[in-house]
Design brief:
Layout: H1 14-24, E1 31-34, H2 40-47, E2 53-57, H3 60-72, E3 78-81, E4 91-98, H4 101-107, E5 112-122, E6 132-140, E7 143-150
Helix pairs in contact: 1-2
């Protein structure tokens, strides 16, 4: 159950669905949702067995909504206010950044994760992945999501 309130994310958008599909194929471990919005991806990660689950967003209403949605869904998600382009981000096994193309490219070099799922951009977009290499790309309704792995 997701109430987006004034935050982005009901779970119905193609980018959200693609991110969750890519997450479902990964081994659960420590997890970070960058730009969590309503918390839908973080909640799905918790239900898939990822733990601990940390979610960050720079929008105060999104933080409140994500916390509420996690509680309603009976999962543990640690939601914090943070600007992912400036604030320190934790080291995790898996991170998701379902945000804009520009923000994905800005945040990727700052992430310390073995695998990252990125989305929030169109199929025609080819993000610069910095220290990561693409393992898989999925497309739906003109949107893209990429599963990335940190290079050696």
């Amino acid at each position: 159950m997701i109430d987006p309130g004034r935050a982005f994310g009901t779970g119905a958008h193609a980018t959200t669905q693609l991110c969750i599909e890519l997450l479902a194929a990964l081994e659960p471990g420590p997890f970070l949702d960058v730009g969590t919005g309503s918390g839908v991806v973080a909640i799905a990660a918790a239900k898939l067995g990822f733990a601990p689950v940390l979610a960050v967003d720079s929008d105060p209403p999104a933080i409140e909504v994500a916390r509420s949605n996690a509680a309603v869904n009976g999962v543990s998600v640690d939601v914090h206010g943070a600007d992912a382009t400036e604030d320190e981000l934790p080291s995790v096994d898996v991170a998701v950044a379902n945000i804009s193309l520009a923000l994905v490219e800005s945040v990727l070099p700052r992430l310390d994760a073995s695998n990252v799922v990125t989305s929030g951009y169109l199929e025609r977009d080819e993000p610069h992945f910095g220290p990561y290499a693409r393992r898989e790309r999925r497309i739906r309704d003109g949107w893209a999501a990429d599963l990335l792995e940190r290079g050696e």
